[in-house]
Amino acid sequence: MKKIFYFLLAVYCLLNNISSAYAQLRQMEYLDRGVVAVKTNNGIFLSWRILGTEKNASFNVYKNRKLFQSVAANKATNLIDPSGTINDRYTVKAVTNGQEEQNSKEITPWAEEFLTIQLNRPADGITPPCITYNRAKRPPIVQEYPNGQLYTYIPGDCSTGDLDGDGEYEIIVKWCPSNQVDNSFSGITGPVYLDAYKLNGKQLWRINLGKNIRAGSHYTQFMVYDFNGDGLAEMVCKTAPGSIDGKGKKIALDKDDPDKDWRYLEMNQKTCGYILEGPEYLTIFKGKTGEELHTIPYSTERGEVNSWGDNYGNRVDRYLACVAYLDGVHPSVIMCRGYYAKTTLTAYDFKNGKLVKRWEHISDIKGKGAYGQGNHNLSVADVDNDGYDEIIYGSCAIDQDGTILYRTGLGHGDAMHVTTLDPDRPGYQVWEVHEEKEACRTYGYEMHDARTGEILWGGPTNGDNGRGLAADIDPKHRGFEMWSAGVNGVYNCKGEKIAERKPAISFRVYWDGDLQDEILNGTNLSKWNGTEALTINKFPGAMHCNGTKRTPNLSADLFGDWREEIIFSDTEDPSKLRIYTTTIPTQNRLYTLMHDPVYRLGIAWQNVGYNQPPHLGFYIGDGTEDIPWPQLYMPHGQYSKE
């Protein structure tokens, strides 16, 4: 079937006189209409998505199978039914060239502003006898657990993908044990579980990463994407002997013992719980069932632990990951190790059921390449406008062929943002905050050109500048605004201070219907008024994740119109997720953010390290009339056309 599709696509390109059209079309996921209806004080709020292939589509809205309202091709895809009730049934059908689509899902309204997903919370556990050593405290805190340490589970970072090919997103949940640790701390952790759920709460699978994968924000970065173009997403993550797939199979290569325990179990306060020996794997799992599809040795290997930046096993296990279109058409997965010193990235394609290495980048010489330039996060975009994606790896960028594109030399940082920060400049820019003392003397915060690394503006801070956010929050200033923990005030994209006070520094989200960002800090959503941020929603009963980072479990355009959904766990019952959606009408029309490649790849990497919010690959602050439309094709045979 795939060969037939590619043949028909080629014929389409020839008939429409599009030279090299196939090379311009990215493989993207097929999505259904994504209709959502919610009971409000004004009736039923209804919204739905426009696909990236539906530039001129209008819509017919049906209520109880009778035509209720037609929405023109220049109108926003939301409405309010003042007489609607939670017992009514709604269907939305696109109309293109006078033809109404046939297959559209019928939905009933939610009774409140969030959808609850009941999860299968893992059972509590207890570790072997252990000792923990917290290096972050002065003096360090040591705790002994001669009878083992009890742990429970809460939902951590989530991701999303269409695992079963029905056009609806599923939610993948990383379960975090309460004794998870930063790499710099010793201690034995409970195992990490990855679960997949449909929006109706049906659990598709559970993957147990096992005792040889430690729990913490730097260890397990899981990429969910349709890597082979079959219309169903896969999941890729680091595994080890004893990891158990969604079918109950233990993972092991060759003669490796799947039951061997590679943890340091001695009651040594500085090494207990570390896993610095034994095999390391990379596994791709089938999204529909969680079963292992292919496992290979993890690249790059540990080698000498001290080559990664310390001698006790902290920085050797600093991992990042992302998805990028390195050939401009198909997604590849990139798995990364190291960023304080030795830095490596390895790209793989998923072909014929196998993970196939595309390239490996190793920077192991101080002062050269990516050595010491990585962040606790990364981003992906086509920064040089050649049709292929680059990986923005903190203070450096890696080209699509695995070579270094540039390095700024400013070193490690905790946060960065990549998008059209300044719409008056060509291409993308990077807003980044820095940690290294020498860098902070000149640039504790800075905005640089994403293609060349040229510093556009910035300034010094008094040491580690640990937080930074970029968002378009002020309509009086064209472009994005930026602020950080280490300096007072808010700056516009030209580097001019526009306010003395600054809002919270966590996440951004599209929510209220205008074209500016709202500010999400934990479960507090606020709106900037030019001088301060005012709360517009507090999401009572919800709980954020990632501790002081105060991030949502996931924020993404999962359904409805182009505004984003926000996922939190339930404060009273951690076995439940809540997916919040806006019920504020908007007059702005925009296709689903998930069909913009920069944004969609941002959702894939959102769970990585210190979570950063996604951004669009284009600027919408001037309006949505002249926005670029994506050049894409979908496995179901839909493709971009003017």
UniProtKB/TrEMBL annotation:
Position of the signal peptide: 1-23
Pfam families attached to this UniProt entry: RGI_lyase (PF18370), RGL11_C (PF21348)
Domain Rhamnogalacturonan lyase family 11 C-terminal residues, every copy: 142-628
Top-rank lineage group of the source organism: Bacteria
Keyword Lyase in record: yes
Boundaries of every Rhamnogalacturonan I lyase beta-sheet domain copy: 26-110
InterPro entries: Ig-like_fold (IPR013783), Integrin_alpha_N (IPR028994), RGI_lyase (IPR041624), RGL11 (IPR034641), RGL11_C (IPR049366)
GO molecular function, one term: lyase activity
Keywords: Lyase, Signal
Protein name as catalogued: Rhamnogalacturonan lyase
Source organism (scientific name): Bacteroides clarus
Record lineage: Bacteria, Pseudomonadati, Bacteroidota, Bacteroidia, Bacteroidales
